[in-house]
């Protein structure tokens, strides 16, 4: 695959052999593919030393606010769901304005790719996939998330287990979708529910319909309704009846056909009311199919021994003559086989005392299920004593500080310290779907109030089955992650508590997390703003290639390039009059430098180094007239020695989408805060030195060009 760096110019340059480039802490080592809104890379997380799939939004879509918002909402939707049948999201973030998400790197193939080589699946595989996708949907729906685009391309089959995982919540919503254009039908045409086709409000049952389409396709090799044109497809979904499954594939079990055809009902009220109910129904269908299959095998006899001829198999019983793997038995080595007629079956059923669907009385109410029900598993109470040998290690890697809205991640180990098989939690609780859970609690660290109550973190408990527990003497890696957007910026004590499924504590470990407010993107509540057009403020440009005054113009330009073999630098000088804020400098808590893109400048990624000028009298310069500031008299003429480095101003103006977005170019940092607090006077000078090379300047509005969008400092005092 082409990995020309120009194709991926949104990445930082590679630093090691074998890299395509870098994105923050991620080393990009391979291209995995491209989707509708993003590109997917194989990457290595340098912090946690693990390989991930990194999905980065296409630059074309990143230039559109709604697209950026949808991408982030997809990531946050997926990150909110923790389940074995949903792909795990490790991190959601922005790198220089480019949205990305890091997720587990899955081995295997999509269900769509499997269908290409195997159009029709054995019904046992259909039941298994149905159950696993339904369980994943139940977890998503429990978080209030509707997927809206269930289709084979969005279902992954892991290797070697074959476990199904739901991918790509790119169309997921947790409420009304305000991002879709009015009147738009969102989803994949062949898998749309009737309510999607009618552009009606959706609930969880729309996903169940789409799953029904997938299951129909697995059973028959084609979707139930397919029309070439989009309009025709929508009309068919709304109006046309499907062809009954057993008319297409007579070998299918009747209970499975009934389930799938119920999922494909036109009205949502006629489908199962939840994915959880659907999972229970799938379990019943599975039990029925296994019972009938076993019975059919048990009543196969040698016709020579009974003196009978070979009885023809009816379409209704044909599927019961398959072996447990779903392949037709041919009886090789045994001579002809006989599947007894219904009378013999009834004798066996009567002897076993088993009710047979459709033969034990008359059904007068369609709501009464006469089929044999799956035996209820014996409920075993899991005690804390049975889990006592399990210990959580201290956190070995993860987040100690994040910006509000980012994912916090913690990695620890679960150790099985059992000294004998009799004490092994795996053996004691063998077969338990949930043998233990890890619940995360957060408590704000407050020295003035040590009795603050710990509350559950915004994440579901991490469920662990008996099979997933480590063997005695072994360790299992555990990762817990949650989004911090709903949490107040503060320092937290984080407690990870191993519990029984009923909530009894077994062991715990603790860590800390600091959540910083996201003032780069959020509204600046409680901040006061001063601009260069206020008080004694000023702004200008000095150029290494010009001696004339560059102040007083409508725009400020930053430049780093080479002309005729000579390096050319245009530095931007800003002076702010902090006295206009009415805030004592030593009380400053947080501050933000803000700029606004102007003109048709450099439409790509950009970076400036920002310095504070500490010299006494350094802020006495003027833009124009006598004594105007020029290169020869500028503080950075001979370099940055002795000046205060305040931070980096980085942004991505691809497609010039940030033009005229007032105050959207922002820089924050302790360096800026400290500089303002310790300044020699209320007039402070800040210099922007471009570090990204381009022949095209970057333009910002000046105080003369657009006062309301001129360079600004937003400052918040300590409370």
From TrEMBL:
Biased composition (Basic and acidic residues): 318-332
InterPro entries, A to Z: Kinase-like_dom_sf (IPR011009), Prot_kinase_dom (IPR000719), Protein_kinase_ATP_BS (IPR017441)
CDD domains (UniProt xref): STKc_PknB_like
Stretches assigned to the Protein kinase domain: 26-282
Region Disordered: start-end pairs: 309-332, 698-719
EC number from the UniProt entry: 2.7.11.1
MF terms (GO), sorted A to Z: ATP binding; protein serine/threonine kinase activity
Protein name per the record: Serine/threonine-protein kinase Pkn1
Species in which this protein is naturally found: Rubripirellula lacrimiformis
Gene coding for it: pkn1_1
């Amino acid at each position: 695959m082409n990995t020309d760096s120009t194709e991926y110019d949104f990445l930082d340059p590679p630093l090691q052999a074998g890299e395509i480039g870098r994105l923050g802490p991620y080393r990009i080592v391979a291209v995995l593919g491209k989707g509708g809104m993003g590109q997917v890379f194989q990457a290595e997380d340098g912090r946690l030393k693990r390989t991930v799939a990194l999905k980065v939004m296409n630059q074309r879509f990143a230039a559109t606010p709604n697209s950026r918002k949808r991408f982030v909402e997809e990531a946050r939707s997926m990150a909110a769901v923790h389940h074995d049948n949903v792909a795990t999201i490790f991190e959601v973030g922005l790198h220089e304005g480019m949205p990305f998400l890091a997720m587990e790197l899955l081995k295997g193939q999509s269900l769509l790719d499997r269908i290409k080589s195997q159009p029709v699946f054995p019904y046992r595989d259909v039941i298994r996939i149905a159950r696993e996708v339904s369980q994943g949907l139940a977890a998503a729906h429990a978080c209030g998330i509707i997927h809206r685009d269930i289709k084979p391309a969005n279902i992954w089959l892991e290797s070697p287990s074959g476990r199904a995982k739901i991918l790509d919540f790119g169309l997921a919503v947790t409420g009304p979708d305000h991002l879709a254009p009015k009147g738009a039908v969102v989803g994949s045409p062949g898998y749309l529910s009737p309510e999607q086709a009618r552009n009606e409000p959706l609930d969880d049952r729309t996903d169940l319909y789409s799953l029904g389409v997938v299951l129909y396709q697995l059973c028959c090799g084609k979707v139930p309704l397919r029309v070439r044109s989009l309009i025709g497809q929508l009309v068919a979904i709304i109006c046309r009846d499907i062809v009954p499954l057993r008319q297409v594939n007579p070998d299918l079990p009747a209970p499975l056909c009934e389930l799938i055809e119920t999922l494909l009902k036109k009205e949502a009220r006629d489908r199962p009311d939840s994915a959880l109910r659907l999972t229970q129904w799938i379990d019943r269908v599975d039990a029925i199919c296994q019972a009938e299959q076993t019975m059919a095998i048990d009543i196969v006899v040698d016709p020579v021994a009974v003196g009978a001829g070979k009885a023809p198999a009816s379409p209704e019983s044909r599927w019961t003559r398959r072996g447990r793997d779903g392949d037709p038995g041919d009886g090789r080595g045994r001579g002809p086989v006989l599947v007894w007629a219904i009378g013999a079956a009834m004798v066996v059923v009567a002897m076993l005392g088993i009710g047979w669907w459709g033969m034990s009385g008359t059904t007068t109410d369609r709501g009464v299920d006469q089929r044999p029900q799956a035996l209820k598993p014996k409920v075993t109470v899991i005690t804390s004593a049975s889990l006592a040998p399990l210990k959580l290690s201290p956190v070995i890697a993860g987040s100690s500080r994040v910006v509000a809205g980012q994912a916090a991640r913690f990695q620890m180990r679960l150790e099985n310290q059992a000294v004998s098989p009799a004490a092994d939690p795996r053996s004691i609780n063998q077969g338990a779907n949930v043998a233990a859970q890890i619940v995360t609690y957060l408590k704000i660290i407050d020295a003035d109030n040590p009795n603050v109550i710990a509350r559950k973190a915004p994440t579901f408990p991490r469920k662990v089955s008996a099979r997933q527990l480590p063997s005695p003497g072994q360790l299992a890696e555990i990762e817990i992650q949650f989004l911090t957007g709903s949490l107040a910026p503060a320092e937290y004590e984080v407690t990870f508590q191993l519990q029984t499924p009923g909530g009894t504590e077994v062991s715990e470990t603790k860590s800390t997390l600091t959540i910083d407010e996201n003032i780069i993107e959020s509204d600046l509540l409680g901040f006061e703003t001063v601009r260069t057009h206020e008080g004694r403020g000023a702004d200008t440009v000095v150029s290494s290639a010009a001696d004339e005054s560059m102040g007083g113009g409508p725009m400020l330009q930053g430049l780093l390039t080479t002309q005729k073999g000579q390096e050319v630098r245009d530095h931007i000088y800003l002076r702010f009059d902090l006295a206009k804020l009415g805030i004592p400098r030593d009380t400053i808590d947080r501050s933000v430098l803000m700029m606004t893109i102007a003109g048709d400048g450099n439409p790509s990624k950009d970076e400036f180094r920002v310095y504070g000028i500490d010299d006494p009298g350094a802020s006495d310069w003027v833009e124009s007239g006598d004594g105007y500031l020029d290169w020869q008299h500028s503080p950075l003429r001979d370099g940055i020695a002795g000046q205060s480095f305040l931070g980096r101003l980085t942004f991505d103006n691809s497609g010039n989408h940030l033009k005229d977005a007032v105050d959207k170019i922002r820089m924050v940092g302790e360096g800026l805060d400290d500089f303002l607090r310790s300044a020699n006077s209320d007039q402070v000078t800040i210099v922007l030195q471009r570090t990204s090379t381009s022949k095209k300047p970057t333009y910002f509005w000046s105080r003369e060009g657009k006062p309301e969008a001129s360079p600004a400092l937003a400052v918040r005092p300590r409370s």
